[in-house]
């Protein structure tokens, strides 16, 4: 009888040990996944800040005006080049 109890206890001990090893293995993998996600989040924050900087730079009035002059050959609107249209009688 004592042998059976010892065998059952030994089997439970081995099962608990295997369960502990499995839990530690899963915890390590979850920790690695967490670190990877945190690293990706930091990179996304850096990318977002860079995109905001780019947007503020690209949207500045002086840059838009310079591109319009250079690439589109546009000129500044002046009063002598302005034409006013009035609605005529029908």
Question: What attributes does this structure have?
Answer:
77% helix; membrane; mainly alpha; rod-shaped; signal; 90 residues; 2 helices; Cell_div_FtsL; single chain
Notes on the protein architecture:
- It is a single chain.
- The protein is an all-alpha fold and 90 residues long.
- The chain has a domain at 1-57.
- It is built from two helices and no strands.
- The relative contact order is 0.04.
- Keywords: Cell cycle, Cell division, Cell inner membrane, Cell membrane, Membrane, Signal, Transmembrane, Transmembrane helix.
Model regions low in confidence, pLDDT < 50 over at least 5 residues: none
How many separate helices?
2
Helix content: over 70%
Strand content: under 5%
Structural class designation: mainly alpha
Extended strand count = 0
Gyration radius, in Å: 36 Å
The rounded distance between the terminal residues' Cα atoms is: 117 Å
String of helices and strands: HH
Report the principal-axis shape.
rod-shaped
Mean pLDDT: 89
Largest sheet: none
Give a brief description.
Part of a complex composed of FtsB, FtsL and FtsQ. The protein is mainly α and 90 residues long. It has two helices and no strands.
């Amino acid at each position: 009888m004592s042998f059976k109890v010892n065998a059952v206890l030994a089997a439970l001990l081995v099962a608990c040990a295997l369960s502990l090893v499995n839990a530690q293995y899963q915890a390590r993998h979850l920790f690695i996944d967490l670190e990877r996600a945190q690293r990706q989040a930091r990179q996304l924050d850096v990318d977002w800040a860079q995109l905001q900087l780019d947007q503020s730079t690209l949207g500045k009035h002086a840059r838009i005006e310079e591109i319009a002059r250079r690439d589109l050959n546009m000129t500044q609107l002046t009063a002598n080049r302005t034409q006013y249209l009035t609605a005529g009688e029908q």
